[in-house]
Amino acid sequence: MFIQTEQTPNPATLKFLPGCPVLDGGTAFFEAKEAASNSPLAQRLFDVEGVTGVFFGADFITITKSEDKEWYILKPSILGTVMEHFTAGRPVMVDGAESISGHAEASGEDDDEIVSQIKELLDTRVRPAVAQDGGDIVFHGFENGVVYLHMQGACAGCPSSTATLKMGIENMLRHYIPEVTEVRASA
C-alpha cells in the first residue's frame, strides 16, 4: 500500500490519500479522541502525540496537528497507523455510523426552496473544491438572509477560511440566490 500526502492551504493540516475508499458516503470530523468512539481509525490516530483533529472524506484523511509539533516527526507515525489499519482490513467507522456531518433542516417552510437551492450549490460547486483542499463545509441554517456554514477538516482554523467564506462562497450564493445577503461561520 502506498499512501500519498498533499499539502493543504492550512499549514497545521496534511491530507493523506491511502489509494482506497475511506468513507462510502459523507464525511466525519473529530476534534478529540473522546468524540471518536465510533471510529477505531480516528482513535488510533489521536494516539499519535500532536494529532488534534481527524477528518475523513470519501478517499482521503486530513490530519490536524498541534502548533508545537512538526510534520517530519508526526508523518511517519501517521502513515504507519493508516497503513496498518487498512492492510488489516479494519473498518474506519463502526456501529453503522458512516457519516457524521450532514445538513441541518430548514427552520421554516418558506425557506424550503431557498434552502434546497443553497444546499444544491454547496454540494455541486463548493464541497468538491473544498474537498480538494482536504476539508468540508456543512450547512447549518438559513435565517433572515444569512447562511450559516461550518468548516471542517483542513478548512477548520485555516488562515484563508474567512476569505473563502466571504469572497468565494458568499459571492457565489448571492449571485445565484438573491435572498442570501451574507454567509457566516457557525460554531
Automatic annotation (TrEMBL):
Note the SMART domains from the entry: Nfu_N
Q: Which residues form the Scaffold protein Nfu/NifU N-terminal domain?
A: 3-89
Q: Which InterPro entries match?
A: FSCA_dom_sf, Nfu/NifU_N, Nfu/NifU_N_sf, NFU1-like, NIF_FeS_clus_asmbl_NifU_C
**UniProt superkingdom:** Bacteria
The family classification in the record reads: Belongs to the NifU family.
Q: What is this protein called?
A: NifU family protein
Q: Say which species the protein is native to.
A: Kiloniella antarctica
